[in-house]
Amino acid sequence: QLQLQESGPGLVKPSETLSLTCTVSGGSISSSSYYWGWIRQPPGKGLEWIGSIYYSGSTYYNPSLKSRVTISVDTSKNQFSLKLSSVTAADTAVYYCATDLVVPAAPPQLWFDPWGQGTLVTVSS
Amino acid sequence: QSVLTQPPSASGTPGQRVTISCSGSSSNIGSNTVNWYQQLPGTAPKLLIYSNNQRPSGVPDRFSGSKSGTSASLAISGLQSEDEADYYCAAWDDSLNGLFGGGTKLTVL
């Protein structure tokens, strides 16, 4: 069964770029059955969808973050990545990667299962 | 302020049935499926209900989902102490945006 694990720096300075990687095990990131997504949760707050990518490279981004977000896939490493530029303290959050099952001819359904354990990223100087 | 509106809190006693609502609009719940997540303290969210009323393997049938128009509901019957958690609804919006509700904290009294 699929397992996901986030990795990356836990501390990022304001105005810099946050970079995280999600390593997929138990299955191929090149599968046509899944979208690969990023979701974040500020401390004590709710969930926010950041974006999703298909193995072919097609992406969907949260419009409120679109100008700062890039999600990409590395099929050789069975990983997908998140880059968020020009970060501020408001980007401090636990960042989760997750798998979303593809429904043919439909956009992401937000059927996220499974999830990684999450990684806390703090934006501070 | 989330586009999908949930009550911030809900409560019930063991054995009771509780429902959590999620209100949206024609561009999200009205035209796409609704999913529900359970988040226990300090853990990643877990998919509880997908496609309005489907339970993933392993989710007890005490949990059920429904949708009508631009609103959806999660019902938990036979409430247990281990059900104390945060619950989130989620739905795709036709503006090409994924939405989560603000979350409901369920307390088992």
What structural keywords apply?
heterodimer, A: 125 residues, mainly beta, 7-stranded mixed beta sheet, 4-stranded antiparallel beta sheet, globular, B: 109 residues, 6-stranded mixed beta sheet, 3-stranded antiparallel beta sheet
Question: Secondary-structure blueprint of this entry?
Answer:
The complex is a heterodimer of chains A (125) and B (109).
Chain A lengths: L2 E5 L3 E2 L5 E8 L8 E8 L6 E7 L4 E3 L7 E6 L4 E6 L8 E9 L10 E4 L3 E5 L2
Parallel strand pairs in A: 2-11
Antiparallel strand pairs in A: 1-3, 3-8, 4-5, 4-9, 5-6, 7-8, 9-10, 9-11
Chain B lengths: L8 E4 L5 E6 L10 E6 L6 E4 L13 E6 L2 E6 L8 E9 L3 E4 L3 E5 L1
Parallel strand pairs in B: 1-9
Antiparallel strand pairs in B: 2-6, 3-4, 3-7, 5-6, 7-8, 7-9
What can you tell me about this protein's structure?
The complex is a heterodimer of chains A (125) and B (109). Chain A is built from no helices and 11 strands. Chain A has 125 residues and is mainly beta. In chain A, strands 2, 4, 5, 6, 9, 10 and 11 form a 7-stranded mixed beta sheet that branches. Chain A has a 4-stranded antiparallel beta sheet with strand order 1-3-8-7, with no helix packed on it. Chain A starts with a strand and ends with a strand. Chain B has 109 residues and is an all-beta fold. In chain B, 0% of the residues lie in helices and 46% in strands. In chain B, strands 1, 3, 4, 7, 8 and 9 form a 6-stranded mixed beta sheet that branches.
